[in-house]
Amino acid sequence: MKKYVCEFIGTAVLVLFGCGSAVMLGGTSNVVGVALAFGLSIVAMAYVIGNISGCHLNPAVSLAMLINKKMSAKDFALYVVAQVLGAIVGIGLLYLIMANCMRLDVAVEGLGANGFGDASRINLSMWGAILVEVILTFVFVYTVLGVTSDEKKSSVAGIVIGLTLAFVHIMGIPFTGTSVNPARSLAPALFQGGLALEQVWVFIVSPLIGSALAGFTYKYLNNGEKKKEAEK
User: Is 57 domain-assigned?
Assistant: First the structure.
């Protein structure tokens, strides 16, 4: 139960601070600030809950771990439930904060939802959004698998993962707002409704596709290396 609680808390923190920064900072000129908010949230949580749950905070990461047999199907299902609930609580807290700000209107500012077409800063098409999210998620999840599979890198894993999340956000924010995390996308869409809710399927399906590609690619490329090391 502790690991599920950790995933719940960690995802709530990630979504509150990440999406909160997206709402407060906004604008293309503040892309780096928003990206760092997401990345540093991962760094902070990794060194607090990483030794308990692994600090996935993302159904896409958990899916890749399942593919590589680093977690059971039961744990995967319960991790996803905890992550989604944590994301909803995180956005709920952001909503309450904004509701008490006289100069902020959720209907105008939004809650950091992802989007394409009219909801994209550069009017990216649906297929463009799918491609971007698959690529960004592949890079992020592939990095997570690599850095967490080597015990020698355990001391810096949180920093590497956090910085990787930040750099995929730097590219992705102008395109889609950057998802790479179905839970992070679903929560604000549920609160905002409308166009955000209509488009959210792209930001659930695409990260899972990118994650599966990363998971199977890592499994294929690294299994041979592990066998060679075992033989030595």
Answer: yes
Q: How far apart are CA 106 and CA 155, in angstroms?
A: 40
Q: Is the pTM of this model over 0.85?
A: yes
CA distance 4 to 25: 31
Q: For residue 26, is it left (φ>0), alpha (ψ between -120 and 50) or beta?
A: left
> 117-125 contacts: CB < 8 A, separation 24 or more?
117/199, 118/195, 119/195, 119/196, 119/199, 120/175, 120/176, 120/177, 121/28, 121/173, 121/174, 121/175, 122/174, 122/175, 124/175, 124/176
Q: Are 173 and 155 contacting, i.e. CB atoms less than 8 angstroms apart?
A: no
> How many angstroms separate the Cα of 180 from the Cα of each of 38, 57, 74, 203, 214?
11, 11, 23, 7, 12
Within a domain: residue 24? yes
Instruction: Read off φ and ψ for residue 90, nearest 5 degrees.
Output: -60, -45
Residue-number span of the structural domain to which 12 is assigned: 2-227
Residue found by looking up tokens 């999340």 in the block:
165
Measured CA to CA, the distance from residue 94 to residue 77 in angstroms comes to 26
CA distance 97 to 54: 29
Residue pair 130/206 in contact (Cβ under 8 Å)? The answer is yes
Answer for the pair 53, 11: CB distance below 8 angstroms, yes or no: no
**How does pLDDT run across 131-162, given as a tens digit for each residue?**
999 999 999 999 999 998 877 777 888 999 99
Contact 99, 91 (CB under 8 A): no
Classify residue 232: in a domain, yes or no. no
Give the whole-angstrom CA distance, residue 59 versus residue 39: 17
